[in-house]
Amino acid sequence: MHGFSFFDSLYQILVIGIMILIIILIINFTLYQKRKRETFEKQMESIEKKLDMMIERMKKDS
Predict the structure, then answer these.
(1) What sign has the CA pseudo-torsion 23, 26, 32, 34?
(2) pLDDT band of 24, cuts 50, 70, 90
(3) How far apart are CA 21 and CA 13, in angstroms?
């Protein structure tokens, strides 16, 4: 019976460890998505600036 209870506690530790790992992965994924969205917004801003500059040049040329 003693060995059985040992395996029981080992199983509980394993389950808790897996749950913690899943939570950490979810947190990392959400942070990564947020960071990616921020960089995407920055890229869009820089593209808008470039387009504005091109439009200004075209206005000057005409």
Answers:
(1) negative
(2) very high
(3) 12
pLDDT exceeding 70 applies to what percent of the chain?
94
Question: Is the pLDDT reported for residue 10 higher than 80?
Answer: yes
Residue 47: both structure tokens together: 């593209």
Torsion of CA 40, 42, 45, 51, to 10 degrees: -70
Distance CA 36, CA 3 (A): 49
Q: For the chain, how are helix, strand and coil distributed in percent, rounded to 5?
A: 95, 0, 5
Measured CA to CA in angstroms, residue 30 lies from 2, 6, 20, 36 at distances of: 43, 37, 16, 10
